[in-house]
Amino acid sequence: MNEQLRKCPTCLTPVAEANLGLRDYRWVVESLPGRVAPMDIDFALEKNGRFLFIEFKPTGGGVSVGARILYKTLVRAGHDVWLVQGEGPVQAGPMDRNGNVTFAAEMSVPELAKRVRMWFDGAGEER
Q1: What pLDDT is recorded for position 28?
Q2: Is 30 found in the same domain as 80?
């Protein structure tokens, strides 16, 4: 198992010590081919068929290869994906069609909430 997946990225509780139930995806991994495995979605918001996904990471934390593939696919399908690092202030930026965050801005958590609201108010409008 990937070392990053052995503990909660937020609270750092080892998976073996946490009662994750079905959220511990080992129950399905052996049924999938090769290195295919499920992942959780940290944040999803929908309006008018358009989605905003946010991936939360600790400061300096990276996005796994599998998550990057999923998120760039979602961006290419017309959805928005933001990477947010830290607990506050945070670094937040959008993911592009190649799965990269080319710029990020430092902001407070209330400012991040304001930007989520701005996204929600503008969802469904032409880009």
Answers
A1: 85
A2: no
